[in-house]
Task: inverse folding
């Protein structure tokens, strides 16, 4: 009987809403709150399930196969926790595409991922400053504070912008309180790297390579607000290895998933190509409003 009345109510809503206008992604999402709502996005969900593993893409300039590495960030951007191969995910993606003046297919493609990359990059104040034509000045010594040895990965000594360090400590405390899996591993969310002077980076990257990737024209670490955090590492890899196997492993960890969902509360934004790289952007309220909707890009990192 309950099923009958639920169907009757759903049908009544369809007649009332869709009889008065177009079957928009917003209306469909409200009618079907589960991850597998509505038949409209079956084909898009099937397409996403395939491209997730097989699409040839290069959102950050380097050829990649599939977009699973970015799935968690895509989900946060479009406002769903549903898996990327579900109809709900496709419906939310269509809504995001429509909002950003793209064809609302609900299927991930190269153009959509690049548009999201621009939004993610646009949330980084460092990129905004770099895009204006100049590399931000290095942090002044008076603005930096030493992190405690226990806050560094394997006891590493690091320093960070004073306000960024305070925000980081609040974020780590919240993560360990809210997720016991993070709390159990004392190395999780320790600092692998923080402030690095331009001179240090020049020496570290001599020969034009850093960590196996092209040397950045201007590193965000000079600002004192960029942090490489330990979010786990695939067996045999460094916690800051840009190998796709390591990056994929990291995006599946509880630590990274927690950060994706909560870091903006504390003013932090991810350089999405590197799951370990986070930057303090200041005001958490403004950041939460901007993340996922901004525009802008740069070749700095």
Result:
């Amino acid at each position: 009987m309950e099923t009958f009345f639920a169907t009757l109510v759903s049908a009544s809503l369809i007649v009332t809403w869709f009889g008065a206008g177009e079957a928009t992604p917003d209306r469909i999402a409200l009618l079907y709150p589960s991850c597998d709502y509505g038949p409209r996005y079956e084909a898009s969900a099937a397409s996403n399930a395939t491209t997730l593993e097989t699409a040839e893409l290069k959102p950050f300039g380097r050829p990649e196969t599939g977009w699973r590495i970015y799935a968690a960030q895509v989900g946060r951007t479009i406002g769903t926790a549903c898996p990327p191969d579900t109809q709900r995910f496709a419906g939310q993606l269509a809504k995001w595409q429509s909002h950003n003046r793209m064809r609302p297919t609900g299927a991930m493609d190269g153009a959509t991922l690049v548009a999201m990359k621009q939004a993610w990059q646009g949330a980084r104040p460092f990129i905004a400053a770099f895009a204006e034509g100049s590399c931000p000045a290095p942090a002044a010594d008076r603005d930096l504070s030493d992190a405690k040895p226990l806050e560094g990965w394997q006891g590493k000594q690091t320093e960070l912008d004073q306000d960024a360090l305070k925000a980081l400590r609040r974020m780590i405390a919240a993560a360990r309180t809210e997720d016991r899996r993070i709390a159990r591993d004392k190395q999780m969310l320790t600092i692998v790297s923080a402030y690095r002077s331009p001179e240090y980076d020049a020496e570290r990257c001599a020969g034009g390579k850093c960590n196996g990737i092209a040397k950045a024209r201007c590193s965000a670490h000079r600002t004192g607000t960029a942090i490489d955090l330990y979010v786990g590492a695939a067996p045999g890899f460094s916690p800051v290895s840009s190998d796709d196997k390591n990056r994929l492993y990291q995006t599946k960890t509880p630590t990274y998933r927690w950060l994706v969902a909560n870091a903006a509360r504390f003013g932090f934004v991810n350089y999405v190509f590197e799951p370990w790289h986070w930057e303090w952007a200041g005001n958490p309220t403004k950041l939460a409003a901007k993340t996922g909707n901004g525009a802008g890009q740069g070749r700095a990192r």
Q: What stands out?
A: Residues 6 and 12 are 10 Å apart (CA to CA). Residues 2-116 form one domain.
